[in-house]
Amino acid sequence: MINKLLSLITLSLFISLMTSCASTPDFDTTQVDRSLTPQSVIAEPMISRGKIALWGGTILDIRNMENITQIEVLAYPLNSSHRPLQENKPLGRFILQHKGYLEPTTFAQGKIITVLGSVSESQSGKIGESNYTYPVIIARQIHLWSPEDDRSNTSFHFGIGVRL
User: Fold this and answer.
1) Rounded to the nearest 5°, which phi and psi values hold at 153?
2) Distances (CA, A) of 33 to 47, 51, 107
3) Which tens digit of pLDDT belongs to each residue from 78-94?
């Protein structure tokens, strides 16, 4: 009887643990060139073009055009779950290009995003009155992070008690 009760408790704990653990976005990173950063692509555009990058950061702006959506992103290093580490120093800005329409209220300024895609030709633009060269990544896969999705602060709590 005690063995069955202990087995039931162990099974319940295991199921609780498995359902409480959120999975990371499923990016195929086998072809990703991890040496690529927005700065390195701007410094050596011809060498970088066509390579696969995995970048992320904070959305600064979104523009829907006739056949594509462009998202301006302030890049940050990624953690092991591919979530941008906003507490770190930014790596520069880049333009994410997505074929088709993306809803601006969903992909709003300030949201956190990670993209897997191929490096394309750079694009000139302005930040205020200053000229800026943006590396462009053609999106193959996009993950928009929710505020509750903070995988860097994962914790586990277990307790049994009575509350009055």
Assistant:
1) -115, 35
2) 12, 7, 26
3) 999 999 999 999 999 99
Per-residue pLDDT band at 21 (split at 50, 70, 90): very low
The per-residue pLDDT for 19 is 39
- Residue pair 108/73 in contact (Cβ under 8 Å)? The answer is no
Please provide residue 100's backbone torsions phi and psi, each rounded to the nearest 5 degrees.
105, -175
Residue type, 35: S
* Structural domains of the chain ordered from first start: 28-147 (2.40.50.140)
Handedness of CA 21, 22, 26, 31 (dihedral sign): negative
- Cβ atoms of residues 53 and 28 within 8 Å: no
DSSP class per residue in 24-39:
PP----TTB-TT--HH
Tally of CB atoms within 10 A around 43: 11
Instruction: Name the average pLDDT for the chain.
Output: 84
Query: Mean pLDDT throughout 70-74?
Result: 98
User: Which residue type occupies 7?
Assistant: S
